[in-house]
Each structure stands twice: as structure tokens, then as C-alpha cells.
Design goal:
single chain, alpha+beta, Signal recognition particle alu RNA binding heterodimer, srp9/1, 2 domains, five-stranded antiparallel beta sheet, four-stranded antiparallel beta sheet, 14 helices, 49% helix, elongated
Length: 285
């Protein structure tokens, strides 16, 4: 199944969540750089390719069979896989889990408000994940088609700063540049999921800002444009408004003007940028 980043209509919010996940998956040819591959064992490198294939397969199955996966959310399924990778030790063609540790986690998550409110259990979620090959045998978890996948997932869970924002969500995106160190995505990578129209508009906005000497910077995964240390605008990408990128024009009173990054709005956005820059010049002496 091919997920199109320009898609606008979805059968359900669950399917939108799956699509949002799928279009954010980073291709191995991008994330498996020579530097990363030089640090990978054979098992980890194989696991990376298997992980990428598996997430595409899982997303396609979830999208086509949402009734089998609900009421759990895509995020909850990813959290389960993360926890298995975090708590276990890769061995052979699977990952070994300490029975006491796993039972403690099971009890904790089944008592959580999120699970109790939705009426789901960890065992039920794991059973559904079995559709894509996840198996448990005694104290080992493994994938029939992806025997080395947990080598890569476990390494990711052990990588520096993996629990810090915005690194954690990269587990879903198979960004293997984070396997051994923190990695900050650049401008093009942050806009990977943006629709074609919004991407072109974003480039046009950048060219305009550059022409009036309003520089761009990226901080904690947010693309910002500042003038005299004051923010002029930033870009926001959310699945509920997607595939249109949102342009947030800042004001001195702390509010923001939100405008979709569409070609029809380009002239108006440029006018607001010019006005915001003039406002900063007046206020900052």
C-alpha cells in the first residue's frame, strides 16, 4: 500500500492517524548513512531494514482493517513495541524478557486510565499485533518474518537522548540516524510530510524572508524566522489540519495569526511578514 502525502480525505480519524504515521517513515536510503552503517553490527543493520518493512506492513494492515485494531490507538501499539525493545535483551532471532519485569509492566499498563477507559488489555493488543507476525514463546518475543528487528529497536531504545523531545517520536519514523546519537532534522526533513502545494509555498516564503533579511533557524524541531531576536513566523504541521502547513505569524501581544500555507495566501503572508518586521523595528530600538 502506498500512502500519499497529498491525501486529504480519510475513512476515519483512526485511518488518518495511521496515514500520518506512514507518511512520516524515513526511507533507509536517507537514515542509514555511511556513518550509521559503520557502527552497526550485522544484526542491527538487518534489523533496520526489517523494522522499516514491518512498520509499512503494519500501517497498511491497520489502515485496511481498523475494526480489528480499535479501540486501541496506533500510538498505544507503538508504545508496546517500544517497551518490549526497551525491557528485553536481543538474543538469537528474538528478544528475551524477564518474566517478573514483564508481568509488572503488564499489571501497570492494564491498570492505567488509558487502557481501562478504552476497555483494552495488553494481551489483546499483542494478540492483534500477531497479525503482522509478533509471537511470544515462554519469555521470548520474536517476529517470524523479521528475526533481527529487535536488535535495531533495542539499540534505538538505548541511544542517547531517546527520551527527550523531540527524539522519542522518531521510533515511529524509523530514523536510524538516532541509533547511536541524537540527531536534529534539517529544514527539508522537517517538511517531509508536507503536501506538495504547502511545500512550494514554504519555499516561496523562505525566499521572501531571505530577500528582506529575516533569517531562518531551527530549534527543537520548529522552523522559525526571527528579526532582531524576535520571532516573525514559524511553521506548524499537525495531522488534523494536514496536508496544509500552518504559518504562524507572531505578534507583540503574544498571540499568533494562523494562515494555511497555500499558494492563494502567499501574497497576504508576505504582507504580514513585512508588517511584522516593521513592527519589530519600531518597538526595538
Amino acid at each position: 500500500m502506498i500512502f500519499d502525502k497529498n491525501q486529504e480525505n480519510f475513512p476515519s480519524e483512526f485511518c488518518r492517524d495511521i496515514w500520518w504515521w506512514a507518511v512520516g517513515i524515513c526511507p533507509p536510503e536517507v537514515s542509514l548513512t555511511d556513518e550509521v552503517k559503520s557502527q552497526c553490527t550485522t544484526e542491527i543493520l538487518e534489523g533496520c531494514h526489517q523494522w522499516h518493512d514491518y512498520f509499512h506492513k503494519l500501517c497498511a494492515d491497520m489502515y485496511s482493517n481498523e475494526e480489528l485494531y480499535q479501540p486501541a490507538t496506533p500510538r498505544q501499539y507503538r508504545d508496546i513495541l517500544e517497551k518490549i525493545a526497551e525491557l528485553g535483551t536481543p538474543q538469537g532471532d528474538g528478544i528475551i524478557l524477564d518474566p517478573d519485569v514483564w508481568c509488572a509492566f503488564t499489571d501497570k499498563i492494564n491498570r492505567s486510565k488509558a487502557y481501562r477507559t478504552s476497555g483494552i488489555t495488553l494481551d489483546a493488543c499483542i494478540a492483534v499485533l500477531g497479525r503482522a507476525g509478533l509471537r511470544f514463546q515462554k519469555n521470548m518475543a520474536f517476529f517470524e518474518e523479521y528475526p533481527k528487528i529487535f536488535y535495531a529497536m533495542h539499540q534505538f531504545q538505548q541511544s542517547p537522548n531517546v527520551r527527550e523531545t523531540p527524539a522519542r517520536h522518531q521510533f515511529a519514523h524509523c530514523d536510524f540516524r538516532r541509533l547511536f546519537k541524537n540527531y536534529a532534522e534539517n529544514y527539508d526533513e522537517l517538511l517531509r510530510r508536507v503536501s506538495d502545494e504547502s511545500l512550494q509555498t514554504a519555499h516561496d516564503i523562505h525566499d521572501y524572508c531571505k530577500s528582506i533579511k529575516v533569517p531562518r533557524n531551527i530549534h527543537f524541531g520548529i522552523i522559525k524566522y526571527k528579526h532582531k531576536k524576535h520571532r516573525v513566523l514559524d511553521f506548524t504541521l499537525h495531522k488534523d489540519k494536514y496536508p496544509t502547513l500552518q504559518v504562524n505569524i507572531s505578534t507583540f501581544d503574544g498571540e499568533k495569526i494562523n494562515i494555511p500555507a497555500k499558494n492563494e495566501n502567499l501574497n497576504h503572508i508576505c504582507e504580514l511578514i513585512t508588517a511584522r518586521k516593521a513592527e519589530i523595528d519600531r518597538e526595538v530600538q
